[in-house]
Design brief:
There is one protein chain. With about 270 residues, the protein is mainly alpha-helical. It has one domain. Helix 1 runs parallel beside helix 3 and helix 6 crosses helix 7. The two termini are about 15 Å apart.
Length: about 270
């Protein structure tokens, strides 16, 4: 029997006034928070995204509700699965609402990165700030010490990778980073939510998913060029890590998936 990423809030003492009202099902509360978060954050992040895009021909958010409808469906499905697998989360309205925000923030990060190759500082900063507030109130999904350790790990590991990358390419004039600043900030923010063991599971999952993407794209390009006799396939650009980091965090949040990946066993051994 392994331990899920998030502790059961039923085992935590709830402050006065935080008891969950049975008149509002946790699925509905989480879904409403997801919908409201997607709508409000979409409007709030637009100016920053367009600033970094430097006067784009088509400002963000792009016309059309298709991606947002798909994103909302993903949020609702994730909320239902997590609340079903961790019944204690539904007994506290704060944690039920946090489930809705968590799914919306991750889905939004993935959508923005897919459309613009950017991760806004406002979004990652908000995710990090909320995690710090929860840690200070000892209401987070991991202990305050684990939250700080996860945030430090999420910032320092990508920084070290980029440092090594710069030293390795010091003779080159290429200014590119191995891991973009937006991905670095997202990992640091997620570390504050899930702690170092949870973040390690997110990194492993995201890396594997990104490798699968690179392999499939390479295979498709190779096939389009005629296979063995068609010559080398053209190299593709850098992989957008944000969507895979977000998907990895969503997957690792689910106790059954975390057990499958071995993350639950790691967290049980960590004592978090």
């Amino acid at each position: 029997m392994t331990t899920p990423l998030m502790p059961d809030p039923a085992s935590l003492p709830a402050p006065p006034g935080l008891e969950f009202s049975s008149s509002l099902p946790p699925d509905l509360l989480a879904g409403l928070v997801s919908l409201l978060s997607l709508w409000l954050l979409r409007r709030w992040l637009g100016p920053e995204v367009n600033h970094w895009l430097e006067a784009p021909a088509q400002p963000w958010p792009r016309p059309g509700w298709g991606p947002w409808a798909i994103g909302l469906v993903i949020c609702l499905a994730f909320n239902h699965l997590l609340l079903a697998q961790t019944p204690g989360l539904g007994q506290d309205w704060v944690h039920a609402a946090l489930v809705g925000f968590w799914s919306a923030a991750l889905v939004l990060a993935a959508l923005i990165d897919l459309q613009t190759r950017l991760l806004p500082d406002r979004l990652t900063g908000l995710v990090a700030a909320l995690a710090l507030v929860l840690a200070a109130a000892d209401r987070g999904w991991v202990s305050p010490a684990a939250a700080l350790a996860g945030g430090l790990m999420g910032w320092s590991l990508p920084w070290l990778v980029n440092r090594w990358h710069r030293i390795r390419l010091q003779a080159s004039t290429s200014p590119t980073e191995a891991i973009g600043r937006g991905d670095l900030c997202l990992l640091a923010a997620l570390g504050l939510w899930v702690g170092p063991i949870g973040l390690a599971a997110v990194l492993v999952t995201a890396s594997l998913l990104a490798l699968v993407q690179v392999g499939l794209l390479g295979l498709v390009q190779w096939a389009l060029r005629g296979g063995v006799g068609g010559g080398p396939a053209p190299t593709s650009g850098p992989v957008a890590l944000g969507p895979w980091i977000a998907l990895g965090a969503l997957l690792v949040s689910l106790p059954k998936v975390a057990d499958l990946l071995g993350a639950g066993l790691l967290m049980a051994n960590s004592g978090l």
